[in-house]
Amino acid sequence: MRAILYIAHGTRSKKGANEARKFVEQVMNRVDIPIQEISFLELTEPLMDEGFKRCVERGATIISVIPLFLLAAGHIKQDIPQTLSSLHARFPLIQILVEDPFGVQEKILDAAAELVRGTAGDLQQKDRLLIVGRGSGDPQIQADFSMIAGGMRKRLGIQHVSVCYLAAAEPRLKSGMDTVLKNAGGRVIVLPYLLFSGLLSSEIEREVIKRIKEGKQLLNIGPLSRHHIFEEIVIERATENWLPSDSHKVLSS
C-alpha cells in the first residue's frame, strides 16, 4: 500500500509551523490516498522518523517522500537522504520514492511575479526588487538565484533586481538592503524567497519596518505559499504515476 510523507523544514515559530500544517492539510484533503503524514526536518514535531513510522504502522509498503523545499541545498542533498537511509536500514522491506524539491520553474516565477503585482500594484521603472533567500554555501544556490532574478526582471519589466541572503552567503540582508536603498529612486519591493513564515521571515519584516521608520519606501511581499501554485504542484506530484521511474530517487531492498 502506498503512503505519502510530506517533509517541511520546521521552525520555532508557531505561526510558521501552523502555516505548514495547514498547507499540507489542504493538500491531503484533495489527494485520494488513505495514508498521508506530515513531518518536519527539524525544530517541529513530528520529525521525519516519527512521520515515517506512522506510515509504516498504518500499513504502508511504498512511501513517496515529498519535500516541501524550494531549492536543492544541504537539506535536500544531505540531511533528508541521510535520514531516509537510516530509516531504510530499519525498515528494509519498505520501498521509498523521493521527489525533488520545487526547483526553479517557470510557473513558480510566474506565481512570484503575481504576488509582487498583487501587493505592489503597477510597477515603475524606478522601483527595485530585492529577493531575499535563505542562503547556502552550495554554489548551485547562487546559480539558482541568478536565474530567479533574471526571470523576475523579465516578468516584472523592471531592470533593478537584486538578491541577498539571510545566512551562509553574501550579501547578507542588511548589506543587500543598504545597497539597494542607496540608489533607489522609487519603492524597494522585498520578496522573501521562503515558502512559509517563520523566524527568518520575521527577521526580514523587522528590517523592513526599521527602514520604513527611517523614511524609506519598502513593501514586503510575504511568503510564497500564499500563491495557490505551490499547492497545485504538490498535489500533482502526490497523484502522478507513483511506480518507480527515472524521475524518482528510489531506496528499496
From TrEMBL:
Keyword Metal-binding included in the entry's annotation: yes
GO MF, one example: metal ion binding
InterPro entries: CbiX-like, Sirohydro_Cobaltochel/CbiX
Pfam family, one: CbiX
UniProt key word Metal-binding: yes
Keywords, in A-Z order: Lyase, Metal-binding
Protein name according to UniProt: Cobalamin biosynthesis protein CbiX
